């Protein structure tokens, strides 16, 4: 992690708060904010949203389940990762925690190294989920753009391509990559189709940008369709 992950630790036991904070911050990769109860934690989250919450379950006034329910009912915190840290280790309690929407469950007494591993794993999975969602949204947008480009060119030119203003010669592999880009595929999907690495696909796409004088996939597809480089 290039930037420290912000964690919020909620526990009514001072000893637990201090020891867990010291252990997690010792790695240099986490910044741990402390809260002694759920109400205090809720106030803290309003000012600064952490990357992950570690919360005890058995707390006075508002317990961990109620706190988690409040988080999940707020659109701002629906996806906020939560790890339950508790002395209750019964299967039924774990099931209740997962049904409530927690991401992981660590029972006291616990090994701090295990807690750190759980935190890292939950953060990694959440980052991968966010990245995948972003890529899916980007792909959907590109596919829609390409569809609109094909419709516009079909209407304006009656599917008759115009000659390219510059002479462009593509290698067989560059042509294959261009055709797949025109289908709306992302680099990872193209790599799978062509049985090559994503890095190689990135190189071919970069060459295509250079040869056509374009700067984005939609510009590349528009240029290629307009000048008959792909269909």
In short:
By secondary structure, the chain is of the alpha/beta class. The chain is built from nine helices and five strands. The protein has a five-stranded parallel beta sheet with strand order 2-1-3-4-5, sandwiched between helices.
Core attributes:
single chain, 231 residues, alpha/beta, five-stranded parallel sheet, 9 helices, 5 strands, 57% helix, elongated
Helical percent range? 55-70%
The number of distinct β-strands equals 5
Class derived from helix and strand content: alpha/beta
Gross morphology is elongated
H and E string: EHEHEHEHEHHHHH
SSE topology:
Elements: E1 5-10, H1 14-26, E2 30-35, H2 38-47, E3 52-55, H3 64-72, E4 82-86, H4 91-100, E5 104-107, H5 112-157, H6 172-182, H7 187-194, H8 198-212, H9 217-226
What does this structure look like?
With about 230 residues, this protein is of the alpha/beta class. Helices cover about 55% and strands about 10% of the residues. The protein contains nine helices and five strands, in the order βαβαβαβαβααααα. It has helices spanning about 15-25, 40-45, 65-70, 90-100, 110-155, 170-180, 185-195, 200-210, 215-225, and strands spanning about 5-10, 30-35, 50-55, 80-85, 105. A five-stranded parallel beta sheet has the order 2-1-3-4-5, with helices on both faces. Helix 3 links the parallel strand 3 (about 50-55) and strand 4. Helix 5 (about 110-155) runs parallel beside helix 9 and helix 8 (about 200-210) crosses helix 9 (about 215-225). The longest helix is centred in the middle third of the chain and has 46 residues, at about 110-155. The two termini are about 45 Å apart. The model has no long low-confidence stretch (mean pLDDT about 85).
């Amino acid at each position: 992690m290039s930037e420290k992950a912000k964690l919020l630790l909620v526990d009514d036991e001072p000893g637990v708060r201090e020891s867990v904070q010291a252990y997690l911050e010792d790695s240099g990769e986490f910044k741990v904010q402390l809260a002694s109860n759920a109400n205090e934690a809720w106030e803290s989250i309003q000012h600064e949203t952490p990357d992950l919450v570690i919360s005890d379950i058995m707390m006075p006034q508002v317990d961990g389940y109620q706190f988690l329910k409040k988080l999940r009912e707020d659109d701002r915190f629906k996806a906020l990762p939560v790890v339950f840290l508790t002395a209750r280790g019964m299967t039924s309690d774990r099931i209740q925690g997962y049904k409530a929407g927690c991401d992981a469950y660590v029972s006291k007494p616990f090994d701090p190294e295990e807690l750190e591993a759980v935190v890292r794993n939950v953060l990694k999975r959440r980052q991968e989920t966010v990245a995948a969602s972003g890529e899916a949204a980007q792909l959907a947008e590109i596919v829609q753009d390409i569809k609109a480009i094909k419709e516009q060119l079909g209407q304006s030119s009656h599917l008759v391509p115009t000659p390219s203003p510059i002479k462009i010669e593509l290698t067989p592999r560059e042509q294959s990559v261009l055709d797949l880009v025109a289908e709306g595929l992302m680099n990872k999907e193209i790599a799978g189709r062509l049985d090559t690495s994503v890095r190689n696909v990135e190189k071919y796409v970069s060459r295509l940008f250079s040869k056509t004088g374009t700067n984005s996939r939609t510009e590349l597809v528009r240029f290629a369709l307009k000048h008959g480089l792909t269909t």
